[in-house]
Amino acid sequence: MHTRSAAAFLSLAFPVVLLAHETDPCTVQPPSEAELHAVFLEAREVADEQQRGWLDAAQRAWLDYRAATCALIGERQTESATLEAQAQCSAFMARERSAELRLLGQTALVDKYERSYYSEER
Questions:
Q1: Which positions ≥6 away from 19 have C-beta within 8 Å?
Q2: Does residue 46 form part of some domain?
Q3: The CATH number of the domain where 115 resides is what?
Q4: pTM of structure
């Protein structure tokens, strides 16, 4: 009973919006996934070696977190509804993570240039 009430709450919190795929969704990355990958690479590029290690660990943990969260949110009565809910959840969380990574990348970039500026002999 408790599981059903949680699923009902989650279905209200994350409503299913049907996605129209003109191509095979298995062969084409959704825009949110492609954006996430690009932003992750940008954040890695501006990070120093230690920050890259932390960023890689955080991203691996986030991917596990997203998989578990979307599995929970995707719990529906039919397989097609489950797949749609999980796709919506995954896309939403990818957009949110992209925003986080942009912020991290900007912070690392500012810090990198500040360290460079203040370490120069004046």
A1: 25, 84, 87, 88, 91
A2: yes
A3: 1.20.1270.180
A4: 0.66
